[in-house]
């Protein structure tokens, strides 16, 4: 892992420095270690694990082997604890400074790789998906927050640092997913060193929408859940005809970081606009047996 892009988060002293901006520009990502503290993480997990959010709204996206990572996706933050996470200053303001302008919430998804059965995520750029949803420019990023420990054994994220500089690569359907041209990816692996993003719970990876990334299947006995928030620049408002079912610019009301622990709403998910996967033109989802997605490690 590139040490230039690896930083420790301290809420009392953290600021986006020239060094951090340079790392994001050159590597296409930064890691903020400990962005969410154990108390915040415990509250977030209580929502993800102890409510009907997963069994009611979860679905699978088959990989090329027939195994599938599972997910829940929502398009508006809502007012529950996870909504405060999507809107808190340490996520939103950091995203704005990295992208150089006001952002709005594009989507949040909980990605779930259950022990021994969780599928892989094929090589892709997020912009490979979002281009099809009308984004004219790749002025967007994702924030991958580790809910569980992420390592090679349970299918941690893999990236090609610096690959955002090659621009958008052609994507096509790979099983139920949208994947990048694999011949081109194999050539790019010789240019950009494949890097495993091993992370502890609460760590966060901010990465540019053109960074090539993937993750292997979970062949371990440990669960790998991650919360992934996406933000698009206001100036990059999608083409109206192509945007649905994803949102066009909607002002995002930021909240202080303290709002996560102060929030008492753990179960009311009204206003989150959960995605009906059958309406998503970039995937072919499996919505059968949704209750299975509530499986705990």
Topology:
Layout: E1 6-8, H1 18-27, E2 29-33, H2 38-50, H3 53-57, E3 59-60, E4 70-74, H4 81-87, H5 89-99, E5 103-113, E6 121-124, H6 126-130, E7 140-146, E8 157-159, E9 171-174, E10 177-180, H7 182-189, E11 195-197, E12 204-208, E13 213-215, E14 224-233, H8 259-262
Parallel strand pairs: 1-2
Antiparallel strand pairs: 2-12, 3-4, 4-5, 5-14, 6-13, 7-12, 7-14, 8-11, 8-13, 9-10
Explain what the structure shows:
The strands form three sheets. Strands 1-2-12-7-14-5-4-3 form an eight-stranded mixed β-sheet. A four-stranded antiparallel β-sheet has the order 6-13-8-11. It has a two-stranded antiparallel ribbon with strand order 9-10. The radius of gyration is 17 Å and the shape is globular. Helix content is 21%, strand content 23%. By secondary structure, it is of the alpha+beta class. Helix 1 (18-27) links the parallel strand 1 (6-8) and strand 2. The chain starts with 5 loop residues before the first strand and ends in a 35-residue tail after the last helix.
Task: For this entry, give a set of tags.
disordered C terminus, four-stranded antiparallel β-sheet, Phytyl_CoA_dOase-like, Ectoine hydroxylase, 297 residues, alpha+beta, 21% helix, single chain, eight-stranded mixed β-sheet
Compute the gyration radius: what is it? 17 Å
Which oligomeric form is depicted?
single chain
- What does the largest sheet look like? 8 strands, mixed
How would you describe the shape? globular
Q: Bin the helical content.
A: 10-25%
The string of secondary-structure elements, in order, is: EHEHHEEHHEEHEEEEHEEEEH
Distance between the termini: 27 Å
Tell me the fraction of residues in β-strands, as a range: 15-25%
Q: In total, how many beta strands?
A: 14
pLDDT averaged over residues = 91
How are the strands of the largest sheet arranged?
Answer: 1-2-12-7-14-5-4-3
The poorly predicted ranges are 290-297
Number of helical segments? Answer: 8
The SS-based structural class is alpha+beta
Organism: Magallana gigas
InterPro entries: Phytyl_CoA_dOase-like (IPR008775)
Cofactor: Fe cation
Protein name: Ectoine hydroxylase
